[in-house]
Amino acid sequence: MILHTTYFGSVDWYAQIVRSQEPVTIDGKERFVKQTERNHCLIATANGVQKLTVPVTLPSGGKTPICDVRISDHGNWRHLHWQALSSAYGMSPFFDYYADDIRPFFERKWEYLFDYNYEIAQKMMELVNPNDHANPSTASLPGEGMTSRAESYAPFNPIYFPSLGRGAGDGVSPYYQTFQRRHGFLPGMSILDLLFNMGPEALLVLRNVGN
Questions:
Q1: Residue 145 has what pLDDT?
Q2: What is the DSSP string of 96-151?
């Protein structure tokens, strides 16, 4: 299965990995698409949905493959994103439990968006089920005839889960959210929303997407 890269991708995106019967490949050769979760995520705050965006630069303009998109330091975004997460989820049941695992992504600097997202995805899968072992994928990055940094990437190594069949993407059942009484359940949130609110039960939510 081929997925596009994401910045702390949605619950639905991670559910596709959990439910897939196929090796998972993160596409490093597609052209960057603006206004997508490739460089932004959605979180649930006291004021409703907030979008967190990683500023980027495109060396080849609109033809830049995602693996060559560079992260910009514009606007002190790392600090602002961490502050937003702390404000939104500081009182959630599992924020303190996961904070030390998540904070380094807002302290260390990555040059390329694809590298950054790749390591985020690996960490998120590790946190979803720390008792499983990584199962290397044998799939290669898609695309022919394009020479780029993607050629040097190892396959994505998702932690393996027993397959529950295909069909992810059909909807996430409501789970507890910190500000649910104020806004109702907000779908489409980042995997961080699920982790901070549900902790170890996040895996059950991911397995049941589409059921």
A1: 39
A2: HHHHHHHGGGGTS--SBHHHHHHHHHHHHHHHH-TTS-B---------SS--SGGG
